[in-house]
Design goal:
By secondary structure, the protein is α+β, with helices and mostly antiparallel strands. 27% of the residues lie in helices and 21% in strands. Helix 2 packs parallel to helix 3 and helix 16 packs across helix 17.
């Protein structure tokens, strides 16, 4: 059996220095006598070794480019970032922008991601911030390094710097035909250099690597199985962990009998308050040990799924004001409703749904002396490091969190529960411990996209001009809460609630709920004044980027060119979130005999500034469409008395191949605009477009997500 070697040089993106005390000399040896360039404000030049080097971890100060980029003696460019890879393929696009600015083939780029001992601090991978925030940071590092290399070569050859070129990882002097690779140029030197104030990025029109569909840089590892997920990793002497879970949310231990588990050979039992876990030489023994524990719990009353919307409304706090996701007021709602020719009031509800990642939570923890190292799949390695340090009363530099590329998250892995559990078991057993959650544990004890109640009270003129927009969100959140449409009189508020289920981030955050309600309501307002849904939106819109995607989706869909077939309907919806602009058109078919709803085709137009990798952007949009399809039609967590009733893929309905419609993706490239992230925004128009298509086909105006988990037969019986 092959053991996972944490020091393996075959895995450059995840190599580490466990157990190696790194002093200043060791650190420079590790750098390979390569290049470190400083970013210093105000502009100054520092010569010699930086006295600010962290001699414990070898990390340079974050204002120095050496913290972000290193050139090895083999001319390999190692890039350091706290961002992590959870399937969005940011590893490739970040490598592309560095290769572009540093003028090296992308094959020369290696990226270290999410290793808290080796990368600069990062708050986490969320909010579609990797491309717009980390991309420019790494571009600056690469440009500064390139300019330094050109200066060094000019001095070496006594040549005019402007006569030199950086090409394919080397500096060339065309007039003399001299060439020197980066590694040979910087060998034996440690440099610091300021970034000029007039630093500018390579224009999009000159891109050669960025802007192209370069394949996933380490895709072969995933196809061949070489990539090791945390659940694949092994360390010598490693044990396997299992945790005793309570029977329901909020239950507390009242009695415990550990004798059965303690009697098993090789089993370590850990009991700390309500935490009970075991570590054993193999998974079978660990499972038997946790089953042998006898426990009694005190459970507490919990609202059921059937009661949740009343619970949320009844227990809501006052509306939050201010901030991007807070409430806002404009004009006077009473006046807006008074001058309206027509009014429309509606309540929309969204269920809790699960993230359902392919890879459940897992962690491998190892204690060496007073240093804790944990490998785990998390979107916030530094946040998990802080949580571990606090739990075990350690300094943060005594904790190392390493995040290998992980099998999806969708906003669901900000926390580090498995890391904490594995670390507790490893501390007591004094051996490395791996803990992998089961699918049922992932569905039950991870957090959910929040349920919510959304109330809209609106008014408009007979010509379709909006006059009033009152919007209240209860519990699900403030993302996407502000309408992009022009309304003179607005009142928008988000009301937090103490949720009975554990809830947190989800792809697009609350914008999946808020834009569903907003775009469903806009559709019904258009019908109220007998206007085409697209024309109605454009009449009340002054955002040219949202207008562009609405028109692009409609044009490619053939909107307005033909009427839908009998029992078919067309729906349209758009929205903006996290710097992305999206619009979707859906054709929906409804079987009036069975009530079955089928999405026939979907066209989604998306714009996020300058496109770095078109093929991978397609993949992001496609993933959002399919995930949005599940949230629109099927997905909902069922619960009662604090227990999840559908905690498996057999019970929790996600989209299947038969559910996926014909999909057309339309990318709007804007080379004149900075690149934005694409992981979240494309999902927001999917559910309302499908809902509006159902309304067009049947006249039934659904107001709850999911729309048709059991089809529409019950609605036809009512009518």
């Amino acid at each position: 059996m092959e053991l996972f070697n944490p020091n393996s040089q075959d895995r450059p993106e995840q190599t580490n220095l466990i157990g190696q005390e790194m002093n200043r000399r060791t650190f420079f040896k590790w750098l390979g006598k390569g290049l470190a360039v400083a970013v210093v404000f105000p502009p100054t030049v520092l010569n010699g070794e930086s006295e600010a080097v962290n001699v414990l971890t070898g990390k340079l100060p974050e204002d120095q480019i050496g913290a972000w980029l290193h050139i090895s003696p083999k001319n390999v460019i190692t890039v350091f970032t706290g961002k992590v890879e959870v399937g969005q393929n940011i590893r490739t696009s970040l490598a592309q922008v560095v290769a572009e600015e540093l003028r090296v083939p992308i094959e020369h780029i290696r990226i270290i991601m999410g290793d808290t001992d080796r990368v600069p601090y990062d708050a986490g991978t969320f909010g579609s911030r990797s491309t717009p925030a980390m991309g420019p940071q790494l571009r600056k590092a690469a440009i500064s390094a390139r300019e330094t290399l050109l200066t060094m070569a000019a001095e070496k050859w006594k040549a005019d710097k402007n006569s030199l070129q950086a090409i394919d990882g080397a500096i060339t002097h065309p007039a003399s035909r001299k060439t020197i690779i980066y590694a040979d140029l910087v060998k034996g030197q440690q440099l610091t250099q300021t970034i000029p104030g007039d630093l500018s990025f390579t224009p999009v029109s000159d891109w050669k690597i960025a802007g192209t569909s370069i394949p996933k840089v380490n895709g072969r590892n995933f196809i061949t199985g070489k990539h090791q997920y945390v659940s694949d990793m092994k360390l010598p002497g490693m044990l396997y962990g299992k945790i005793l879970r309570p029977p329901s949310f909020g239950a507390t231990l009242t009695s415990l009998d550990l004798s059965g588990a303690k009697a098993m050979s090789g089993v370590t039992v850990v009991h700390e308050g309500d935490f009970v876990g075991v570590a054993a030489p193999d998974v079978v023994t660990a499972t038997k040990a946790i089953t042998a524990i006898k426990a009694q719990w005190q459970e507490k009353p919990q609202p059921a799924r059937s009661e949740i919307f009343n619970f949320l409304k009844k227990n809501a706090e006052a509306g939050q004001q201010g901030g991007r996701n807070g409430g806002s007021s404009k004009g006077n709602i009473t006046t807006g409703l008074t001058v309206a020719d027509k009014k429309l009031t509606a309540t929309y509800t969204v269920e809790y749904i699960a993230h359902a990642p392919m890879e459940p939570r897992a962690a491998l923890a190892q204690w060496e002396n007073d240093k804790l190292t944990v490998w785990t799949g998390t979107q916030r390695p530094f946040g998990v490091r802080s949580d571990l340090a606090e739990e075990f009363k350690l300094k943060e530099e005594q904790v190392r969190v390493i995040m290998p590329d992980t099998g999806s998250a969708y906003g669901g892995k900000h926390s580090g529960e498995a890391a904490l559990e594995a670390a507790k078991l490893a501390q007591v057993s004094r051996k490395p411990v791996k803990l992998t959650w089961t699918r049922t544990e992932e569905f039950t004890w991870a957090y959910f996209r929040p349920a919510g109640v959304i109330e809209i009270n609106s008014g408009l003129k007979n010509d379709g001009t909006l006059t009033a927009w009152e919007f209240h969100n209860y519990n699900s959140g403030g993302a996407g809460i502000h309408t992009p449409y022009e309304v003179e009189n607005q009142q928008i508020q988000y009301h937090p609630v103490d949720s009975p289920l554990k809830q947190g981030s989800y792809r697009g955050l609350a914008s999946t709920a808020n834009i569903f309600a907003l775009e469903s309501h806009m559709n019904d307002l258009a019908q109220l004044v007998n206007q085409d849904p697209l024309e109605f939106r454009l009449k009340n819109l002054k955002n040219p980027r949202l207008e562009a995607v609405l028109n692009a989706a409609a044009q490619n869909f053939g909107w307005g060119k033909s009427k839908p077939a009998p029992d078919h309907g067309f729906g349209i919806a758009g929205g903006t979130e996290k710097g992305g602009f999206t619009a979707s058109c859906a054709e929906v078919a409804v079987n009036r005999q069975t009530g079955e709803v089928k999405v026939i085709r979907m066209v989604t137009a998306f714009e996020c500034g300058a496109i770095i990798n078109p093929e991978h952007l397609d993949n992001q949009i496609l993933g959002a469409i399919v995930q949005g399809l599940g949230g629109a039609l099927f997905e909902a967590i069922d619960f009662q008395d604090g227990k999840i009733l559908n905690p498996t893929f057999a019970q929790y309905r996600v989209p299947r191949f038969k559910d996926v419609p014909a999909i057309q993706i339309v990318q709007l490239n804007r080379p004149d605009l900075p690149s934005a992230g694409a992981g979240e925004a494309p999902i927001v128009g999917i559910a309302p477009a499908i809902r509006n298509g159902i309304a067009d086909a049947t006249g039934i105006k659904l107001t709850t997500l999911p729309l048709a988990p059991q089809g529409l037969a019950a609605h036809f019986k009512k009518s």
